[in-house]
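Hi there,

I know you've been waiting on this one. I reran it after we fixed the sequence typo, so this is the corrected version. Both the input and the resulting structure follow.
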Amino acid sequence: MANHGKPLPAPVPASLVHEHMPEGNFLDYNSLPSSVTDTIPQIDTRGDGTFDSRAYQLEMLEESIKKNIIVAMDTGSGKTHVAVLRIKHQIQISSSPKLIWLLAPTIALCSQQFDVLRSQISSVQIKSFTSADSVDRWSEKAIWDDMLANTSIVVSTFAVLHEALCHGFVSIGSLALIVFDEDLAHNCIGRSPGSKIMTDFYWPEKHSRHYVPHILGLTASPVIGSKTEAMGTLESVLDSVCRSPHIQKEELLLHVNLPDLVRIHFEASEAFSITLRSTSVMKNLLEVYQKLDIYADPEIISLKSQNTKSSREKMEKALKSKNTFIQSQMKTINRRAGEMCQVLGHWAADFYILQVVSTLIRSSDSKDIATTTWKDAEKRHLVNTLRNVDISPDNLTVLSQTSISDKVRALLKFLQSCDEKTTGIIFVKQRTTASLLQHLLSIHPATSKRLRFDTVVGASQQASGKRDLFEIATHKDALSRFRSGDINILIATSVLEEGIDVPRCHLVICFDEPSSLKSYIQRRGRARLPGSRWALLLENSSRDLTRQWEDLELEMKKKYENEQREVQELVESEICEEESCRSRYFRVPSTGARLDLDNAKGHLQCFCSRLATQPSLYMRPVYIIMEGNEGENRDSHQALFRAKVILPATLDPSMQVFISKMLWRSEKNAMKDAAFEAYTALYHAGLVNDHLLPLSFMDPSSGIEMGDSIVEIHEQFNPWPSIAHAWENREKLQRRVLALKDQHGLVKCEIEISIPVDLPELEPILICWDASSQWKLESGQPRIVEYCDQQVEHTATLLSLAHGHRWKVEEMRYAVVFEGLNAKISQLQLGCISLVDDDILDESMGLLRDSQNCGYPYLFHKFLSSKPSIKSIQHPHKDYESFSSNQPFVALKKWSRRSDFLHSVAAGPETRDAIPTVFSQFSSIIPSFLHKIETELVVKELCSSLLADVDISDTAIIRKAISTSGAREKDDYQKLEFLGDSILKMLVSIFLASKYNHWPEGYLSAKRAAIVSNARLCKSATDRGLDKFIFTDVFTGKGWRPFYVEELLKSEENGTRRISSKLIADVVESLIGAGWKMGDFQTSLSIAQIFLPEVDMPSVEVGRVQLFDIAPVDIPIPEDLCQLESLAGYSFVKKSLIIQAMSHRSINTATASYERLEFLGDSILEALIVTEISRLEDSLPLSFMHLCKTALVNGNFLGFIALEWSITQKETCWKENHLTGVMEVIDSEFQKPLWRFMRHGMLDVGIEQQEIARRHRSLRHDILSAMESGSEYPWTLLARIQANKFYSDIVESLLGAVWIDSGSMEACRQILDLMGIIKYLHRIIKERINLLHPREELGILARGEEVVYELHASEMEDGKSGRRCKVFVGGDLIYEGDHGKNNDEAKTRAAEGAIAELRRVNESLGSRKS
């Protein structure tokens, strides 16, 4: 490497190499490759665009190789270049695949450093891990492994690496070098993420004398405040020493330029007054704001319509404080306009208002990003409000010297003195100031043609929520344009003060005063070029600048010391206990994941939030502080505390309450301790994984994408090669006589077949000979005979009769041998009989053949005594004209080309052949017969291989289970799949609930979804080889050829086909359904376990007993629940089950809630319904069967059952008889429905129950009428009740409890019968009730036209807010619906009205046509 006149340090002595570095691997600066020296764009450039390393940077590199150091150098001196050199060196010496990890405090700085490293190091893969890369969603070790595969360098924030270490996704031993970049005093002290990386992971490994990575820190100053001891603390934490260039200090001073100070004075503005200094536009805006009617505010209207305790409290607070989103927007716009008027002048204030108002008005008619997160009502209201502001050109202030502030005029005057090639930054406080000042300078005559301006500001605080109107958008590419020279002046907020790499500037201007000494120093450091200027705008009345900042520095140090003393007093108890906190941790040996008192609360909060199975539910741990016992506190002068944490009731009771292990002076530490105890218990119970995260249930079939994807599978199993080998092995033969019978049952012919394998019993085969004739091919009893050589004459002749004219029939050995009984059949008989007169010749005598056309066969039709007209002849003879008029002719019919006689056909010509014709007819159906034999052989192979351990009592149902609808076999799998889907769901539910008895319902549901997913079933089926047994292709006979033994012996099975993954999963479920048909649930379980071996439950009863055994014993039943036993007609053995079944998650006792029972009962209910449907009428259309299930298991219907199903109770009271004055006993009755038995602990639940009961009372008569005598299912009426999910939940949890307690599906069915569900199902099926949902039915009536539902806010009759819906079909308005309480109800009611309207229109059109 060329020296370029700069001295280089000597090579590093081997004795100074880092203790963990391989011996001999140190850097020789005299042999550095150019790739190490050509680095980042903050170093001196050569003419070729590459970069030189400065001597002081190489000195720092040398020091960093000797030991861990913190490089302390001024802003602009090239610290990042030192890091690049160190990283390159580490890559060169590394012999193991360890990671280099660079940590930066902000996402913006991460992005910058990532770009720098990518531009300087191209030999290895570099990745950025920040929230912008969605790293917070990487909750699986496999994801981290994939992301880190083949990666050498990672750039991230401090928190990302800390979290990855905590969860065991990354280990400290897998890192070669950690670079801590910028702001170390904040990010590596105390309990900050950088500090915890070192104290929790680095130092324990070093104390154990294990490998630890190298450390390199980068900072402009390691000290904040007045205590220089902080530098020692930082060195101790980072296991490093702070170093600045010493040998090359002189060169460092040459490259760190201090700019010349420039004071720009201006006259201070008067304090802003809206009455004295505002423009007419500002006054107009204020007037509009003051006239706002808060009662018309959408937020107030929304809170009023909710009418809950919480909403009423919020509304009262909002009215009192006038603090709604719109009020806040208007208030802030007014305030910000005043600020802009004072700082920039009248023109800026008016321009700001113009921008805000016009932006909102534009966004009201578009999807402007500024308001996409706003509610429609808020947007409309604010638009209508701001339209009242007069922003017409005549009313706006014109840009002039008098309409801008003196401060801006001073800035303009200074900028006029700057060279046009000046590069610089103007620092301001506010984003809005930056935007307005940029616009003003870009259009002002004094600067617009000389300088080019743009803005760089920090991210809005509302980036993830509602964006405020006063946040004016700025350009995203301004910094890159500044670097490229397209612009030369940046107007920036504090975002550019530190970290972000900005090219060196000639000029830095502080338009607003720096907020701190740190800000002052950082801004000044941006003016790095020789001869650069550092300008501050100062009021004329301000003190001397130097003295001012000296005072400020002293004041800041004093303030820092005072703040430290206050913090010390507040956290003294926590500091005293810090060592106790550090000593309490738990580490998972297999992953290295670490739990300590600092992260336990966060982990526990995350775990509880995952328990919510509905978006509206918020679950969290509840902490209760308890003072220590008197004896425990006697040796302490300060109160000691314990904490108890209560977890949601959806968990098992043993997992709900935990108490801190130790006594603490700090309440916060006591809560941390309780959370730590809870989380370690959750880990040991298997509720969090080895990475200390809540369990996730990714589909194990990762090789198959979710959804209905297309997969490549084996070709269908071919049984014929095994038949060929049986012939070759001279095995015994099975012989059967086949009888072909016509539609009257008369035998047409008999053929004996021989095959060297045991065929199952063959059902009669329906032969669709033509559109009007259906024959049968029946099989006789089999008999076994010894092997004998084939006599192929009959087989070859039979095949030749119907097929010989199309392909040559070989006289080879056949897989199946045919022989005509009581008939002599020979190929010599083909076409050997000459024509005779019509008294003898008829169709049954044999086929007529055309010797000129490969012996093409025809059927005799009739003799013609004379020559027919040429028009009546389809194919005239070539000598037709030479024939005499009395020449006899024969009328013929073509022989059928069909080879498929298994499927019905439309009307067409008759077919026949010769020997007699009946054998030709049999010849035609040989392909169809052999196809049937093939399907039986495939089924036999499946039963004897994959299903060998299952008791198969009916092979026909197995054939049905593997036949897709596309195969067009006699039956397909769809109804069995309908059955098997629900049975599989029930079996897996029982298995999971019994195996994971501590798991909450959310875990169970997620695990079940993963197990029964289509992707999982498809993967398992293909792995087990089920795919080759699935019938997917329809048999047509086209291209069919005989099965010759010799050819089959040479055949190989290596073909594939492509089908839907869902289809394969459906076949698995259909086999499970077939199992139930053959032997109830146990047979289904046996089949399910073939494909899902993890469901290792010996029997359904074993699973039930396990669930029964874990239910608490000897718990007395509350008196009110005794009535529930009477209602259900069932007395529980374990009363704890009925208590749990009625316990809502909000109960505040350590009793399990109903979720696990509901999880089980949901699947039991579904299984009972589908098996009942299958028993009632197996001939139902599949679509109707699905509708039946949906109608009876949906939440609205079950909610109605919970409201309606009740027990009658008597009530007795005394009442005075007004006539006699005597007190009399009055007996009355009332109904106690199921929902009243539910136990809960929330006031809002009780209020909601009363409202739902009111709606039920108003609708129940109509619903019951529809159920008892209506012709349509009451979808809309049920939806209008708006029953909360817990109503349907308790129906299902009760079923789950009864099944666990009784072990009887019949007992559960009896409860459904008592509820009226079974009765209603029978009526639905018997009377074919219309079950289509109105929206589905409307879609059908629309006949392909697009149906659009347009929703609008409306006011209900009771004054509450509601929804109205318009329905458009094909773009035409068909119906405007009635009011609905919510979107679903409004759409459903509108769909019903649209259906009625379309029917009326169709009837009207029909009557006109008639």
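Quick highlight: The radius of gyration is 44 Å.

Best,
R. S.
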